[in-house]
Hints:
alpha+beta
Amino acid sequence: xxxxxxxxxxxxxxxxxxxxxxxxxxxxxxxxxxxxxxxxxxxxxxxxxxxxxxxxxxxxxxxxxxxxxxxxxxxxxxxxxxxxxxxxxxxxxxxxxxxxxxxxxxxxxxxxxxxxxxxxxxxxxxxxxxxxxxxxxxxxxxxxxxxxxxxxxxxxxxxxxxxxxxxxxxxxxxxxxx
Length: 178
């Protein structure tokens, strides 16, 4: 028994068996955390681009315009995952201290729904302070991130963005069904 206890052959193998799974998990976790941040960053950039596009629009926004904006969004996101994009125009009434929805439309996957007045009426914690009659373009997106490795993130993690922009060149942005 004494000879067995003092024997050192094979100790490297025991250490490797203990540390190798931890090392592999750490490599997988590093990859997944980087990938989640890349995934979020791509959607942030896409949302900022769409908000900027709509905020600069001087003509009425149409269904075709939003369909093409969704194509731009997907091109910037660049990973083939179903994305849901909502574009909403919100107006503020300072007399009543409430927000209202002028129009709201969704494109892409069915993760989001169009906003209504009741959704934003008292959304003071989510929307910025505005002057009476001022309008705001709100672009929301939602995607599901599926991790490649099981490191404890779960499956189907929701990745959402919300970007706001004021109209730039026109006092209001109208919607046209044609």
